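Entry 14. Two folds queued back to back today. First construct below, sequence then structure tokens.
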Amino acid sequence: MASLAGLLQLQGHRITGSDKAAYPPMSDLLHTLGIPVLEPYAESNLDPVPDLVVIGNALSRGNPEVERVLDDRIPFTSMAALLHDEFLAGRESLVVAGTHGKTTTTSMLAWIYQVAAQENPALEPSFLIGGVAENFGSSFQLRPTRTFILEGDEYDTAFFDKGPKFLHYFPDALILTHVEFDHADIYADLEAVKIAFKRLVNLVPRRGIVLAYDGSPNVTECVSHALCRVERYGFTAQAQWQLRNLRHEGGSILWEVWHNGKQWAQLQMQLAGEHNALNATAAAALAASQGISARAIQSALASFKSVKRRLQVRAHIAGITIIDDFAHHPTAIRETLRALRSVYPQSRLWAVLEPRSNTLRRKVLAADLVESLRIADRVMLAAVYQQQRIPEPERLHPEEIVQALNAAGTPAELHPDADAIVSSLVPQLNAGDVVAILSNGGFDGIYEKLPARLSEYTEAQGQGA
């Protein structure tokens, strides 16, 4: 929504917004753009009456602004519908979808096109991403060129449109990264998730292409009836775009990409994790299918900086590294912790988790969550965010997660909030430790509270010595 606001402002519209509570990095972006965000929601936020209200999918009947929009018949729409009507019509739509990896992969693809535009300005892309791409310092860009790159979200569109947002985007080319059960608040089961992705694949025209991960039976099923060309990427010998000889060197990854059995390129990035090599290979394969040279792709990936809140180092204090990651699913947590293990193999790794996403707040993937968190050496778990809004039979019980971790030999603690976690964690930290803060929200300001308390504590310890 913040990215769309920025795009609309570039078109000359006057934009205002409302939220229950805005938090970085998007609140910072909106402040920089001069777009006011009123907090909390209130009917008076719609004075003077706007020409159009874009209603986000987090809102439902009962919200005071939604009620006024309906009562006064103020024109309204959804983010996805407006994005299609204002920006995608008449352009080439390149969509990155999947239950994991889509924000980073979309950022990589946009940067590849931006670098390629140094030789061919017609390739400079417009884009919209669900995070701040550090190479651009923004989550959006609008150019008069034909290519529009965007992240395709499988979450529903609005309270008045319960289909996935990505069905509004009509991709000319599509990347499909992973398909797993997620968004337990709107999808009944894995089959329902797969149906959504099958419908997306069915929108790609015959002249288009789908780049699909080859390590997932769910992805295979979703692309099995595509009417366009499908190429697979991954580690198997059957993948048209095969990763080989992946290795980590410090915080970097290096690997070879073989295309149809022939070595195509050697790639490297200043990022960690097998998942990022897969994401980069997907972006490279789609870009190559659209005519971008291997040389431009290599240069772009070598200079790619990542996305804010994806393995982002927030602080380094007294030899202790604090990292922020937008974890929302047990698989994402697993890949984050595995990546940190590869970068900091000798460090004691702490996982500090707030169960905040609509999936993590439910018990449906509790066993997977325990297995993912066991990769860490120590775990701090916060209370479930707004647990009272989850039906009792569906709720995750964090005390059971902590009990299971301790029983499996991974020391774990449960605390009610960020302040309690910080108070317990800081005295236990030693030089060389790595702390991964995992949440898809503001986590009650822990990203600022932990470094501040750690600095105070280490300074006091030094003075005491």
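Second construct, same run, same settings:
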Amino acid sequence: MIEHSTPRLLQGASNFRDLGGYLIADGRRVRRGWVFRSDHLAGLTADDVALLQSLALSHSIDFRGVAESAALPYSIPGVTNLAFSIEPTVVQRLRVLLDAGQIPSREETVELMCETYRNFVHEHGPTFARFLRHLLAHAAPVVFHCTAGKDRTGFAAALLLAILGVERDTIMQDYLLTNQLYRRSAALEEHGPAHVMEVVWQVQPVFLQTAFDVIDRDYGGLSRYLAGPAGMATDELAQLRHRLLER
């Protein structure tokens, strides 16, 4: 059983939780009340907005693609929205296959998801570095999200926790909490075979492990990846740890 901050229940959003509370090897914990992850925030109730405002959030970082954000916009008074767009390529590829009458198997759908995570590492390092630099530049709580808060958000959370020194087994368990917390919405899902949609709208260990494997195999580990494609300097990472670890 992993130790983490208790998820806060929102009526109009799911998969919202504090990344704080996780233990690292030297006995410190990830700072609580500072970095939150979620699914999209377009359905918040007045009570939800009041709860989020009580957290003193300064910014909301939105990893959704342009069309996704336009379809489900939102505004939280006092919170600045920032678009760090990563387009949902797996959904687009599935739409092309299904429109052509090609129904992928469960295994083929899993491989499409794994390819998405490879792309996070290979193609979107600068976007995730932008996210990390935002946490470093703004000394105030932040929430980050995509549509379901599971893939783009899940990888961003995993990358941040790894930088802070959280063990990978614990990171994986945090990642898999999505399967307990995320409430699927028929309004958001593409129409398609049940076995395909089940894979796409859940998370599996192999998805995140694929990203870690690429970081280790193709870049020689997290430190070299961050210094390379992500372009993060050693002192920036040290400052990030200083800010986001309890002392």
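Quick look at the second one. The chain has one domain: 17-244. The longest strand covers residues 35-38.
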